[in-house]
Hints:
globular, alpha/beta, Arginase, Chain A
Amino acid sequence: MVRLAARAACRKKGRQGIVVTPAFLASEYAPSAPENALFHIIPAPLEYTRSYGAGAARGPAAILEASQQLETWDGYSCPGALGIHTAPAVDCSGGIETALKHIAHSTHEALAHNALPVLLGGEHSATLGALRALKERYEHFGIVHIDAHADLRPHYQGSLYSHASVMRRAVADLGLRLAQFGVRDLCLEEVQARRDFNVHFLDAPELTRTGLPAALLPKDFPETIYISFDVDGLDPACIPATGTPVPGGLGWYEAREIVARCVNRRRILGFDVVELAPLPGLHASDYAAARLVYHIMGLVERNAVLPR
Length: 308
């Protein structure tokens, strides 16, 4: 009853009686001022280029709502104690290129406070806005990408900015290094792109056969990284509420271990959790996505070189 009361207190009504989405984990931590928070939550309800199921635009709000049910103790520490600021939702109404500029602007605002941007999607294309901002500031870094799909098509359904092309933009346009984990659905064009752009990968079938190797990233992979986590990288048994679910995905603890090993002793510039497409009455997916966000915050706190 205490948790339900706290959650209700966080869901204030605006002037028109519209329920305002609460800040991330506001049921346990008072929202921090931007200058006092390590973690800056950036909700980005972008949904322009879906190729199967709809609903990703509702993902950020669902994660924020579900976060009210999280415990402050993530099993190892309390990362929320480092301060969580939830920025206003990015305006994604003016076309995808405009939306990406707005996402980049919100990311720049987080970086101006020496904070770590945490992008909540929305479709995976939203990641490009954050990557552009980080590229301007840091120039050289790598991407750790967990996904069911390679997202390396040069374009898809007539758009350079399709969710199926976001990692192509990262490697081809921004010149970033890329390591992919859990992929199990890709086309021949993407197989060739992996060769052309020196993409490191451990796909789901290989991980199932051999397990996790001792070293997940190549020796020459950048020590500074960004984590991009598409929830369809997990098996649909973990999170069925996503636009393009693919069987045979990563298990919950397997995915967590991959992220943990990749962030260990590395400098983390930011991360995202994208492609949650909430389903009515299926709260488990929303909660799992929120818990994933908080878990990665904890990994950053405990095992990584902080950006400050």
